[in-house]
Amino acid sequence: MPFPFYLFYRITTVLFTYLTHANIAVPLWLDRPLSLIFVTPNMHKFHHHFERPWTDTNFGNIFSIWDRIFGTMVYDDPRKVDYGLDVLDAEADEDLAYQFRIPFNPGIKTDS
């Protein structure tokens, strides 16, 4: 692949990552049609929902076509999203020591 193509892809990927993870409220009348082609902030929010099956959706970064092809596309009212992980202790969500121990705790399973 020519370097300019790679550079264009990397810059686009970073921009879309920042856009989809930005805490912005895009009006549904604009977000809905854009999500037919691109991954939008409202669409991607469901990927960060606290419970499955919503957590296992909307993996795309630039184009939403991939989630549509592989059956991982979900679109609903973004106000329904409750962030977090359903396998963690919600009472310790601000405990930094607890969070650093999560990857090493065999009792916490984040896979299916």
Write a compact overview of the structure shown.
The protein has 112 residues and is mainly alpha-helical. It has helices at 3-21, 28-34, 41-44, 65-69, 96-101. The protein has one domain (3-86).
What would the keywords be for this entry?
mainly alpha; single chain
What does this structure look like?
It is a single chain. By secondary structure, this protein is mostly helical. The chain has one domain. The protein has helices at residues 3-21, 28-34, 41-44, 65-69, 96-101. It is globular. 13% of the residues are buried. The model has no long low-confidence stretch (mean pLDDT 87).
Radius of gyration: 16 Å
**Mean pLDDT figure:** 87
Multimeric organization = single chain
| Strand proportion | under 5%
What is the succession of H and E elements? HHHHH
Q: How many β-strand stretches? A: 0
Distance between the termini: 36 Å
- Helix share bin: 25-40%
How many domains is the backbone divided into?
1
Number of helices, counting only DSSP H or I runs of 4 residues or more: 5
- Largest beta-sheet details: none
Structural classification: mainly alpha
Contiguous low-pLDDT stretches (5 residues minimum) are none
* Backbone shape: globular
